[in-house]
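Course assignment 3, question 2. Fill in each field.
Student: A.L.
Task: Predict the tertiary structure for the chain below.
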Amino acid sequence: MSSKFNLKQQFQQNLLAILSIAIAISALAYNSWRNEQSEENRNLRAAGFEIMKESARLQYLVDSITYASSNDPIKQQDTPIIGWVTVNQIVSLSQLMMPEVKGDAEQLKLVWSEHWQDLADDEAANEKVSNANQRLVDRVRNQLTSLK
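Answer field:
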């Protein structure tokens, strides 16, 4: 019986130390989890803002191809190459985001691939690419506002 009493007595005498260790371990676990969550949110924000910037760049390019005069320097540049680079950059960045954003980025690439050749002559092509681009931007914006 003295061993049980001794154990109980030691527990009572060291209760504060035991509680301190339990609190320290739980605080460390929470802090580690919170740091991981914060880092993930920072990465999502950075990728999201870059996607939005690239989407704006693509929209400028699409509108310039459709609405600029034939003498405008934008029509004389390598606009399809710039467009493909921008779309591929968007798709690459979307791999860091939620699956819905990835899907919208892939859809934008598909719409771009089907309509980039018609942008100079067809406002409907501009509208299709612009709508796909806007859906992507809206999805990214929604994801960014949902971060905690």
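Instructor remarks: The first helix runs from residue 2 to 13. The chain is about 85% helix and 0% strand.
Grade: pending
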